Amino acid sequence: MDEFGLIRVWTEDRQSKEFLQGSGVILGIGDDTAIVQGASGQEWLLAMDTMVEEVHFLSDTMCEEDIGYKALASNISDIAAMGGVPKFALVSVSIPPNWNEQRMKKVYDGLYECAAQYEVAVVGGDTTAAPRHLVVSVTVMGTVEAGRALRRSDAGPGQFVFLTGATGLSAAGLHGLLPKPEGSRSPRPPQRLIKAHQRPSPSVKAGRLLVEQGWGSALNDISDGLASEAWEIAEASSVRLILKEAQLPLSGELAAYAHRCRINPLDWVLYGGEDYVLLGTADHRHEAAMKEQFRAEGIPLFIIGEVEQGAPEVLLEASSGRRQQILKQGYNHFSKG
């Protein structure tokens, strides 16, 4: 089957004409470009991410459907980190010989499952051959009210630091799924940790609350790890972030699994990535209202620190009050170690 035939098999009738028209799609898959309606008083948000076989996933850690789901979810999370609404997606795949039509259909099954959950219209993309490994690239377009996007650079001294969920779960799940050296044993992680890695949940609802209520200041999503994202806010805003160790959310399942693996759970909490919860700062005058509204919406909210004036850095404060700088590290695609 030729390229266009394959595209039809993988994408045709996945989303109804009524949904696409209601989403503002004038012309979707099938021409040189998609055409979508603009809206007055809004700004477009554009995000792109790429997943490469044996860099971002292995057959040991993710099935085909998980790959498609996560490829879209990671981009939706970038839109959520600006407080935006994800609207449209472009999907490009580079396919090696060992990925046949049926395997690729499963990738698209997962991708369209995520699209349906977050009401994202898939409007185009590209398909090419690859020599050895599968590559999936997704571009997501979203909207946010003009002038209201939440940026990393807007944290200010005197604000508090918050998370919209626990971190480290995805890293723990990945640890348990990765193949181990012959003869070594590693306990299987709880299903919640596996799901956190394979099927992450972008925090779109939380991001929208922060914009709609005017609560959010700086915002970032946890893709490369809490420590790395905190450093990004500190440097972009030219402030010092103090994270309080006793206030960092620690899942009981994560703590128990880390103990079984003889790993300090704080390593996963600080340096594990791909949790896709939001890290942000806000003024203390909003704290009570945020806690009440997030609780009413069923969204976790953890106050984990403070913003101080000073040279950009991130410090971890122990219960004793002793502070030490957190390493500026997280997931690095180009790390040699």
Name a few traits of the molecule.
single chain; 337 residues; alpha+beta; 60s Ribosomal Protein L30, Chain: A; Phosphoribosyl-aminoimidazole Synthetase, Chain A, domain 2; 2 domains; seven-stranded mixed beta sheet; four-stranded mixed beta sheet; 34% helix; 24% strand
Write the layout of secondary structure elements.
Layout: H1 3-11, H2 17-22, E1 25-27, E2 35-36, E3 42-52, H3 64-80, E4 85-95, H4 101-117, E5 121-129, E6 135-145, E7 160-163, H5 169-177, H6 191-198, H7 204-212, E8 216-221, H8 226-237, E9 240-244, H9 252-261, H10 265-271, E10 278-282, H11 287-297, E11 302-308, E12 313-317, E13 323-325
Parallel strand pairs: 4-5, 9-12
Antiparallel strand pairs: 1-2, 3-6, 4-6, 7-10, 7-11, 8-10, 9-11, 12-13
What does this entry show, briefly?
It is built from eleven helices and 13 strands. It has 337 residues and is an alpha+beta fold. The chain has a seven-stranded mixed beta sheet with strand order 8-10-7-11-9-12-13. The protein has a four-stranded mixed beta sheet with strand order 3-6-4-5.
Describe the overall structure:
Helices cover 34% and strands 24% of the residues. By secondary structure, the protein is an alpha+beta fold. The radius of gyration is 21 Å and the shape is globular. Residues 332-337 have low confidence and may be disordered. It has helices spanning 3-11, 17-22, 64-80, 101-117, 169-177, 191-198, 204-212, 226-237, 252-261, 265-271, 287-297, and strands at residues 25-27, 35-36, 42-52, 85-95, 121-129, 135-145, 160-163, 216-221, 240-244, 278-282, 302-308, 313-317, 323-325. The longest helix is centred in the first third of the chain and has 17 residues, at 64-80. It has a seven-stranded mixed sheet. Pfam families: AIRS (PF00586), AIRS_C (PF02769). Mg(2+) 2 binds at residues 49, 78. Mg(2+) 4 binds at residues 32, 78.
